[in-house]
Task: structure prediction
Amino acid sequence: MERFQQIFSRTLTARHTAAPSLAPGECRSSHARTCTLCHASAVDYPTEASARNDALQEFWRTLRIKTPLHPLVRSPLGRNYRTTTKRKAFHRGRVVRLALIDPSENAGGRGMDVGQCAIEPAGHAAVYAKVQESLGKPYARPLADALRYVVVRGNYEEYTVLFTVDRIDGPVSKTLNSISKGLTHTVPSVKGVLLFEDRSDGRYYLGTRNPAGRGGIRKVFGNADVYAKFGGKGFLYPGTAFSQVNASLVDQMVETALRLLQPAADSTLYDLYCGYGLFTLTVGTSAGACIGVERSPESVDAAIANGRRLHAENVRFIKSDITPETLGPLIAGARPGDAMLLDPPRGGAAAGVLECLAARRTGRILHLLCNIDLAEPEIQRWKKSGYRLADAVPFDMFPGTDDVEIMALFTPDPGSHHARTERS
Result:
């Protein structure tokens, strides 16, 4: 069976379209090398989205799933959409270069020093250019030596810049304070500058994925929180918290989740992996009560603060790992008329989690699959647990890449072994 990425590549190649018109320096390195890390330099978004939709439908047929897949929900912004971007600091002697990570290179590679990335907002390029210039100054040596990543987060008008370093000490803080003055003067959209300590030297700009193992964070300038507006509501969340990278598509996701879950006024919605409360405080407010569960301490704190600011009286947030052992008490009160929503990390839910949720026999469970390679095995897990796929809506959350997010609705299967056992 072909993977989706293989089908998409074949479908996109068959379009035989001319390369898009790029702005000067767009998708180019400082040596005029064309960036090939995504599809933006080779094809325009309408062509890419059409090919992705066709590839998705073909891929879905190979899975032999009876439930039809909806047409792809296109991103309002097919380019310049990423509200979280990053550059890794590549060290060569005393020279530090900010560049994108090239997956084809080994750990000692030099990366791709793209000036203007087509899938990033234009303002991000100005941030990276100014930081790169500053890192070359003699006074910047303490920060340059400690630097691992520069990350830009925010909305399409305001940015928070996060500097991931292997240590936070006096010289590093003093250097960044000086750099932030020039940065905020050159790029007024920068409203916050943060230092984040990480000594793991991994591929992730936040280091270890275990929140308990993360280092400290220090505000150097401006706002410590990032602002976003979704579903007509304003949210604040820390620069280290997870948020959807394509803000232009989130409102459509909220609307679709509300349509599929249909939370009733006398029901409870369980929002698992709730982050800073995006779905809890939009979809969940239509239910009688909503319980958000999240393992990240900073995200839970942000969710509680967002709930208070938005005067959401029917919500409650719980900090907890999401495992079969921890979930049991949290969902013990779930009834057939209740609903569940889960948006797990790319690696999927831990073993036993889906089975634990299915055992409560709630009427509707909405599972956000951000890794299409897990779609078939996750659907099979639900099937073995007595649930059927009732609806599936794909979202073009990551234009330019080979990734797709699928919103999958599951309901109890009346013909399953589990249902027959309950009736007997």
